[in-house]
Amino acid sequence: MPKQIGVASSKKGIEVEGRREGAPRIAASSYLNTVPLIWSFMHGARRRDVELVTDAAPARCADMLARGEVEAALVPVIEYQRINDLAVVPGVCVGSRGSVRSVVLVMRDDLDDLREVRTDALDISSRTSATLVRIIFREFLGFEPEWTTDTPDVASMLKSADAALIIGDPGMTFSRGHVVVYDLAELWRKYTSLGFVFAMWMARRRNVKRVRFIDFKGARDEGLEHVAEIAALYSSTVGLPPREIEAYLLQNISFDLDAEMMAGLDLFYKLAHKHGIIAEVRPLQLIGM
Asked: At residue 166, what are phi and psi to the nearest 5 degrees?
């Protein structure tokens, strides 16, 4: 069972240019699926509470946390098992209970089935999804292709590989011509009957006192109240109609880490350990909110 780290609440500091003096520095990817979690910190009621850093790649947010450049970050969940002394914010995640749309394995259409894949190019932006696709091949399909890594460009990746893993906004906007697309969260649901967790807010344990006061759940709730506004603002940037973005954020993405999603996360960690991708399964340490 997950454990909670309980600490006293931090004292409020003095506001400087709209932000509390000494506000914690937090990081998150700039993908569309993270925006409801950080909207409040960018534009809403909690914009004075933190210094927010965004990066296009979730993997680099994990690196910033590991190097101590930020005190909390929205991190690919596999990194909890790789970075020492982490604690996680309970109840909040980026996940999916079915089709996620933005984490896909793209196969050349001259192949009939995933079992014909012999080479697979992995998006360099990905860590959790790269682990997930390895597990799908090893555990559920019974073999493993040759892996390479590349920048997220489907056409370029498929010139030298049978299939390509693409995540985030690029995973929704590439040309669907002459390819077969497999949704990884759908495949996970097919084989496990569980939802899948891609990312969670995490902090180094030494920084729990600094980040405990941050209302990550309240920020999520405020962000979800502004999905229509988010969709209108990001439509031209992402290249999707606002209604499609709304549907994606409200139907494809789950931001609630409940019992079913926790069960999916637990199984993911166990299978990653079974297949030698992580050395051990560390129980989740939860930050007492």
From this structure: -130, 135
